[in-house]
Amino acid sequence: MIIVMRPKATQQDVEIVTKKIVEAGLQVHLSQGESRTIIGVIGDKKLIAKLPTDVFPGVEKSVSVTESYKLVSREFKQEDSIIDINGTLIGGKHLGIMAGPCAVESMEQLLEAAQVVKAAGAQFLRGGAYKPRTSPYAFQGLEEKGLEMLAEAREKTGLKIVTEVVDSASVDTVSQFADILQIGARNMQNFNLLKTVGRTDKAVLLKRGLSATISEWLNAAEYVMSEGNYNVILCERGIRTFETYTRNTLDLGAVAAVKTLSHLPVIVDPSHGTGLWKMVRPMARAAIAAGADGLMIEVHPNPAEALCDGNQSLTPENFHLLMNEIGGISELMGKQLK
Amino acid sequence: MIIVMRPKATQQDVEIVTKKIVEAGLQVHLSQGESRTIIGVIGDKKLIAKLPTDVFPGVEKSVSVTESYKLVSREFKQEDSIIDINGTLIGGKHLGIMAGPCAVESMEQLLEAAQVVKAAGAQFLRGGAYKPRTSPYAFQGLEEKGLEMLAEAREKTGLKIVTEVVDSASVDTVSQFADILQIGARNMQNFNLLKTVGRTDKAVLLKRGLSATISEWLNAAEYVMSEGNYNVILCERGIRTFETYTRNTLDLGAVAAVKTLSHLPVIVDPSHGTGLWKMVRPMARAAIAAGADGLMIEVHPNPAEALCDGNQSLTPENFHLLMNEIGGISELMGKQLK
Amino acid sequence: MIIVMRPKATQQDVEIVTKKIVEAGLQVHLSQGESRTIIGVIGDKKLIAKLPTDVFPGVEKSVSVTESYKLVSREFKQEDSIIDINGTLIGGKHLGIMAGPCAVESMEQLLEAAQVVKAAGAQFLRGGAYKPRTSPYAFQGLEEKGLEMLAEAREKTGLKIVTEVVDSASVDTVSQFADILQIGARNMQNFNLLKTVGRTDKAVLLKRGLSATISEWLNAAEYVMSEGNYNVILCERGIRTFETYTRNTLDLGAVAAVKTLSHLPVIVDPSHGTGLWKMVRPMARAAIAAGADGLMIEVHPNPAEALCDGNQSLTPENFHLLMNEIGGISELMGKQLK
Amino acid sequence: MIIVMRPKATQQDVEIVTKKIVEAGLQVHLSQGESRTIIGVIGDKKLIAKLPTDVFPGVEKSVSVTESYKLVSREFKQEDSIIDINGTLIGGKHLGIMAGPCAVESMEQLLEAAQVVKAAGAQFLRGGAYKPRTSPYAFQGLEEKGLEMLAEAREKTGLKIVTEVVDSASVDTVSQFADILQIGARNMQNFNLLKTVGRTDKAVLLKRGLSATISEWLNAAEYVMSEGNYNVILCERGIRTFETYTRNTLDLGAVAAVKTLSHLPVIVDPSHGTGLWKMVRPMARAAIAAGADGLMIEVHPNPAEALCDGNQSLTPENFHLLMNEIGGISELMGKQLK
Fold first, then answer.
1. Which of D332, D98, D236, D221 is nearest to B282 (CA)?
2. Which of C116, C307, D2, D169 meets the CB 3.0–4.6 Å disulfide criterion with D63?
3. Cross-strand bridge partners of residue A45
4. Read out DSSP for B24-68?
5. Which fold has domain D2-63?
6. How far is the C-alpha of B160 from the C-alpha of B144, rounded, in Å?
7. Contact D65 A244 (CB under 8 A)
């Protein structure tokens, strides 16, 4: 951390600040500039994070120079992490495609969707059994019944299951049915939930919060990993900005950024990221070209009758087109769909 | 809901859309314009919310014209709600001032803070026992031990206690100690938690999420109220914007907006809203002048040694100054502190 | 436009509003719903735009249902516009690649950059002669001298020139040297400048403003076209969001959106869009995969010595790599570089 | 500036960076930490601003520690600036109230508005003669004819005139009529315009750009001052955020921030800041309580017939109420209206 003193800070101010830092078990490096003193603070990140620097006398501001996460960082692990989900790989050269309806509505709907996405080449079936909704009056999901349907669809198609867990109390239940536990955007900083899934042996798909910085997102992954579960897959799904034409602003730059900062795989959800089915195919292509390790796509046998998010769901035909397009680009990127 | 058809939509498109709406149990009003048809959809809000309008043929876009919340709205209840927290009132003419440290650190620190804020005129002691933190390595709170200290401080000072509950699993425990259950910004859309506190008889302080629209915030309050608990106090604490000088952008316009849209009391937290103690007093004054029903302020006997958020905590002296300034403005606003 | 009346609006309110609308030369369609009346306003867009609806009695809110731009819209022209810049085409199947230094610094630097980008396949040389800078003390460009160097580089390499014009007073001068007049992000709503370039016969590259919605951006293009100049190329260059890791958030969804809403070509500037040279190649690939009609890339013979934006400039080697990667993706997209 | 080296940066990397800095005429302070080296760069701000640090070898990131503006800063001038506009003062203890219609529409409308605002206590008449509008088809103002009407209204009422100048070419013309030259939000970074008004002797009202940081806003003021014109008044008028209920998000925290960072007076425009006339009074009160030096308010004799922004204009009655409320708060703040 760098502490920038005011131009008028006295020698005594500098001494008090220095003393506080040393008392906290940290080291100090002083730089006496032309017009002001700059104090470098060196030592344990956790101790540094606790310093209330801006209330020390004579301080103008303090600037953090290092991130507080460790296990997720490229410094901790140089090579790409490859996550093995019961035999299917994501990361490195392995693209993972997750597709299916927003919500599980019925066995028929789910099976039809599952067969469609499998035929087109997806390895994972997505489908919400617990649905966090803005309004208490909207459809909230079939809950445990939905989980059972997902398990049945897995049995019939061989697809792996990814589904959302919304509360630490239901982690056990969902873990009995899912191959990947999804943490939704609204729960990205539900720290109890992060710790709870961190104590399971399930892969965790961690969606970026609507207004989470890349740093906060990686810190959320650190919560999971710090409990011992290293099987974390990140998922960019759009951030909230001033633009209203799209539901969210899909931040593909975050994919490139995460690839630099972390070894974890990162996939992209262009369905939520745009909210408009017409934009899903171009954004899916762009995601793979940007270096994403996979996609999460909403596909519904009949979007016009979906109970949730029909406006952003692809028809089976459009999902096939998408998979064909992705094929060409992933080859150029040296990735494989398997 | 209004459905705007494309200029080139056919008569058949309009008929299909109309049919879908009627099948969903809703009514239709057609407006045949010069260049396009506009379809008004009338009926039960919940049914309207489920229509996947944008995938109907010939549709350009759909526009929601009414909010999905009911119980929180001014239409539901005209007069201001006044929340009675074990004898202390917030709302209407009654200002509620909540103050204290970010986190409970020790009995001494807490008691000192409690005595300071009581002497200055606050009616509520704030203090976190469970602390949601961006990094898993930061101080996470004293948990149940912290709750016990809060209860002891209440006994010694008579102040009511407001403290955060971070998970539905701990609602029972926190309820045994707190007078007001605080829902933090990161949990504003933790719907299980909202429903759980909605089934208690405790007053709930609902902080606005970092990137929550006013509509989403009021829908979150609707989650609590729809479970039967009408004792909800809203708290504006800053939203996330591009500005980096302040920690967040305090949206005092939201106070005025909520006063129009809802009967619920709304207070302001300028400590988190700005992140800079020097800005707390001006923003506290502005909040009251904007019509807020109270304040939540971080006060620490010794900010330079706080374990959390020292940079935004007021010293006892500054809190006294703040309370004096607030006194004059609240009188002009026809409000009383007591 | 749709006017939503309050539930408690009286019959008289509705009549007053109706009268105001008719007096303004517009037509009215009434929808009497269960709980409220909705008034559709039909007629000339320009007249509708002027209605101060929210101050009419009994009005809850009004919602615009159509965009105010015409000439830029797909409704006005179905097929993609192809812009001919003195023999080089952009739009439709034709990709345009513009590359070069942020600022013209010297004849040597410029020529070296020009030769590098030409060899790699670019058709346009970019380079700023007038540089809008946040601080008055930063390097402001070589001005007319820079323009002369650009013209000389064109003569020596055959590359077309794209350069920024910052003020309506200098449009004439810049037009004497440039093939494409660039309107920078900060000037996207400098309406006098837009009208002035709209009266020239030069192609115009219109960068999206930092916080401009897609609708505002297209309206800015409408300013140029409404003066008679239809040769407009749009350029997405990143929007301002809460994220601070990247300089801006490159909004590739805007590319897909513009392709739906407008017939104009749209290119992408990943150099400004990210601010980090390491992210330029992945974002350039993603842009082409999303359907962009070209790229604008900062290339500097020696980024470490650039007078401006060195941090986001590619070395010649990296630009070559980028062009190779783009080649494969543009082929998949059915586009050609020529 | 602080340069943070990567943990794996070599001794040679550090030497190269050091050499580059010294060659640029700057000084270096090295801090050798446990895991990485931090390099402090000291010297002329202008030279520092030009360093392309992130492309130097081994550099992880660089952090600016000082602002590039000088003349606007509190360090340059400790006491509040008081601007004298032909005998009327703004700044220090002097509140300035500017009110009037969005656009000058006719002599009758303008005179009626002028008399209303004068009677209520305003010292300045606002009114746009040149109107920057999102769509080229919206009303663009009466231009020079509007300026003449403003001058006539001044003669008849004694009010000073504040009106917008949209282009450097019209600065001379507007200066012949106006007492204060207003720079609109969209032109905040129209640097030619800033320099041109900086060479006049007129007071300049500089509105904050829609997505301008506080730092960029102060740098824009520096552009004006660096040309010799120190009579700058800042105006907060709302920033663009994700919230859509209000037209913009009024950032009153910026008022408190500017008061710390700069000696310049800052006023607030709650009409544009909220876009809703019902929110103007609460936000005007809040602005004064936050420490603003004045207000800019849209008042129209008959908002329902305004050619522009009727939805956010106050009626004469509401403006009177506002002025009464402001009176009480400004007294508490030790300010005077005169």
1. D332
2. D2
3. none
4. TT-EEEEEE-SS-EEEEEES-HHHHHT--GGGSTTEEEEE--S-S
5. Alpha-Beta Plaits (3.30.70)
6. 17
7. no
In C, minimum Cα distance to B248 occurs at C242
Residue B267 forms beta bridges with which residues? Answer: B235
- Partner B, chain C 184-213, Cβ-Cβ below 8 Å: 211
Contacts of B309 in chain A (CB under 8 A): 52
Residue A92 CB burial class (10 angstroms; 0-12, 13-18, ≥19): middle
Q: How far apart are CA D84 and CA D78, in angstroms?
A: 18
Strands B94-100 and B336-337: what pairing? parallel
What are residue C234's DSSP bridge partners? C206, C266
**Least CA distance to A135: which residue of chain B?**
B219
- Structure token digits, residue C127: 């380079």
- Tell me which of 3.30.1240.10, 3.20.20.70, 1.20.1250.20, 3.40.50.410 is the CATH number of domain D83-337: 3.20.20.70
Contact A2 D2 (CB under 8 A): yes
CB contact under 8 A, C310 and D55: yes
Neighbours of chain D (3+ CB pairs under 8 A): A, B, C
A153/chain C closest Cα distance in angstroms: 33
C-alpha D137: how far from chain center: 28
User: Would you state the structure tokens that stand for residue C113, as one six-digit string?
Assistant: 């950059």
With contacts defined as CB-CB under 8 Å, which chain A residues touch B304?
A: 20, 52, 55-56
CA distance C142 to C147: 8
As given in the structure block, the two tokens for residue A221 are 């992954």
CB contact under 8 A, B291 and D273: no
Residue C308's alpha-carbon distances to A71, C9, D48, D55, D190, in angstroms, are 36, 59, 12, 12, 19
Residue A144 vs residues A112, A147, A203, A300, C219: alpha-carbon distances, Å:
20, 5, 20, 21, 50
- Subunits adjacent to chain A (3 or more Cβ pairs under 8 Å): B, C, D
Mutation target vs A (from C66, C241, C242, C331; most A CBs, 10 A cutoff): C241
Strand partners, A65: none
Coil vs helix vs strand at B169: helix
CA angle A132, A275, C222 (to 5 degrees): 145
**In angstroms, what separates the C-alpha of C304 from chain A's closest C-alpha?**
21
- CA A204 to chain centroid, in Å, comes to 9
In order along its 338 residues, chain B shows pLDDT tens digits of 888 888 888 989 999 999 989 988 888 888 776 677 888 887 877 788 777 777 788 888 887 777 789 999 998 999 999 999 999 999 999 999 999 999 999 999 999 999 999 999 999 999 999 988 888 888 888 999 999 999 999 999 999 999 999 999 999 999 999 999 999 999 999 999 999 999 999 999 999 999 999 999 999 999 999 999 999 999 999 999 999 899 999 999 999 999 999 999 999 999 999 999 999 999 999 999 999 999 999 999 988 877 777 788 999 999 999 999 999 999 999 999 87
Asked if residues C291 and C316 have their Cβ atoms less than 8 Å apart, the reply is no
Q: Which of D149, D234, B40, D98 is nearest to C63 (CA)?
A: B40
Distance from C-alpha of B114 to C-alpha of B100, rounded to nearest angstrom: 6
The strand pairing partners of D100, in sequence order, are: D298
List A267's β-bridge partners, or say none. Answer: A235
- The one-letter code for the residue type at B17 is V
Q: Which D positions 278-297 lie with beta carbon below 8 A of chain C?
A: none
Q: Whole-angstrom Cα distance, residue A327 to residue C144?
A: 49
**Chain D contacts in chain C segment 106-145 (CB below 8 A):** 132-139
User: Could you tell me if D125 and D99 are in contact, meaning their C-beta atoms sit under 8 angstroms apart?
Assistant: yes
So what's the ipTM on this one?
Answer: 0.92
Give start-end residues of each CATH 3.30.70.1140 domain in chain D: 2-63
**What residues are paired with C100 via a beta bridge?**
C298
Closest-approach residue (CA) in chain A for C248:
A253
